[in-house]
Amino acid sequence: MKQGLAAILLLFFTAFLLRAQSGWLTPFEESGGKESASYRQSNDFYRRLAEVYPDKVKVLQYGEADIGKPIRLVIVSKDGYFSPEEARKNGKLVFMIMNGIHPGESCGVDASMMLVRDLVTGHSEEDLLEHVVFCIIPVYNVGGSLNRSCCTRANQLGPAEQGFRGNARNLDLNRDFAKAEARNTHTFMRMYQSWKPELFLDTHTSDGADYQYVMTLISTQKDKLHPLMAEYLSNDLDPALYQSMQEKGFEMTPYVFSMKRTPESGIRAFIETPRYSTGYTALFNTIGFVSEAHMLKSFDQRVRGTYALIRSIAEEAGKDAEEIIARKKKADREVGRQEQFDLNWEPDTLHYRMIDFKGYEAGYRKSRVTGLMQLYYDQSKPFTRPVRYYDRYRATDSVRKPVAYIIPQAWREVIDLLKLNGVRLYRLDKDTVLSLHCYYIRDVKTLDFAWEGHYAHTDLRVEEEVQEIPLYMGDYIVFPDQESNRYIVEMLEPRAVDSWFRWNFFDEILMQKEYFSDYVFDISAEEILRNDEVLRMQFEAKKAQDEDFARSKRKQLQFIYRHSPYYEKSHQRYPVYRLTEIMTLPLMN
């Protein structure tokens, strides 16, 4: 390993001299590995490359960030295939890289600049571009990148200035891919849905435990990725990446998500739900990675490790480009025909595999600040030992898709996101009444603090009823027979882990709008009970069994009101309806 690292360092030093002579040094290189390029510097760098090498580099703009400045997409192609259509027509694998979603974790910003420069200026073999088109987002969180300071990342070694995690709206953009509130997210969705990449990488720097590795990796959790993609990822691409990184002098381990306080307790695979970037891309059968360079390694090491990882992904996937493209096409077709969809997962702690882990001995000592015991890692005591790696998850909830979802046009935020993500929508061409399956939200728990701007719903229970629902010309129909089926189902089914219901898109239905005055309704309640023997028996039984209910006039009248014709059927009725029988619908042409 030491010989491999020495060879890598010699290669970098030789290349550094060549680049210095050619005038293409990045701010990272000019500072001796201490500084990270700013938003402006990275834009200027790619602009100059595109001007000098217009047949290999093109800078596109798909939209803006919340702060009002553009988010750019840099396309790198050996053959000048600068559109998705050209790339697809010529059998190129599309590899999309997102940098700076957390701008304090900027390794990918600088690594991508060096890689593109090396590919197009002749300081690196162009074999990487033989089968791959790169789509690189230089800086995604523009607002956070502009909010630079020396001290944003308290636990991290360098760079000299670091961006801020929150964007211009103080949103963590890597929690926004389901709710999609940020303009940044809408811009990314336009990029992603345009190019539909086979591979996606989101570059980060880790928090957490201390250990010997510079680089750790989150691969899309295999048990929630389409089996065709999961099989290739687990059996071929992942092993090849770990081998390639070791040969480059940057031995990796899976992201260190400890079962308990320290890694020796076991490591659990991280599951990225649709709120995260690679959770979102998994909904569309893209193989996703999150690189996590270790916070306590020097910035220079972290950037070069990220550079090596990007190269390794492109090298290894490029060898199998034809197979990956074919697998994704088949997976997309199969998802269009899929009937059953998983909604929630939990770790499978009964199954694990052993991996060799290179860590540091952990201990506890009295803090000179608090006087209390504090965890520490002793870097003078490295170890290599087997630890359990729990990399399997099992589904805990699933649903059978309906023939169609029907969404009243009033819920325009939902409609807009479906359109943005390429979902085919149809509209009713006249008012009608249909017999539909409706969910009622019966029990729900809600966070008692604002998390990413929402008091999100956690646990919920639904009941299903069949009702005659009035619909109106212009209401929307979604048939789940599309490549985007997983997105459709996991956003619209309220029980799904990151559904739009959980993110408060439909909270209006949780509030009752019509009420009663007890002195008036008391008379009506007497008549209702007299005319409904079943309800009267239920009412009397509840009084006998529930002392609190028996002592409360309001609760008793509320019980009768909720079982009367006066109570609004729309209260707690989820306003996305399920059509479960095939029928001819009056649709607009």
Structure, described:
With 589 residues, the chain is α/β, with parallel strands linked by helices. It folds into three domains: 2-336, Zn peptidases (Aminopeptidase); 395-512 and 570-579, no CATH class; 518-562, no CATH class. The chain has 18 helices and 19 strands. It has helices at 2-22, 27-30, 39-52, 84-89, 107-121, 128-131, 142-146, 183-195, 227-247, 277-282, 299-319, 321-337, 412-420, 485-492, 518-531, 533-545, 547-551, 553-562, and strands at residues 57-64, 70-76, 93-98, 132-137, 199-205, 215-219, 252-254, 267-268, 287-293, 340-347, 353-366, 373-390, 393-400, 404-407, 426-427, 432-446, 457-471, 476-478, 577-579. The strands form five sheets. Strands 1-2-4-3-5-9-6-7 form an eight-stranded mixed sheet. Strands 15-18-14-19 form a four-stranded antiparallel sheet, with no helix packed on it. A three-stranded mixed sheet has the order 8-12-11, with no helix packed on it. α3 (39-52) packs parallel to α5 (107-121).
How would you sum up this structure in a few lines?
With 589 residues, the protein is of the alpha/beta class. Helices cover 35% and strands 24% of the residues. The strands form five sheets. It has an eight-stranded mixed β-sheet. A four-stranded antiparallel β-sheet has the order 15-18-14-19, with no helix packed on it.
Strand content: 15-25%
Through-space gap between termini: 65 Å
Strand order of the largest sheet: 1-2-4-3-5-9-6-7
* CATH class designation of the largest domain: Alpha Beta
CATH superfamily of the largest domain: Zn peptidases
Structural class: alpha/beta
Number of strands: 19
Q: Mind telling me the C-alpha Rg? A: 28 Å
What is the helix fraction of residues, given as a range?
Answer: 25-40%
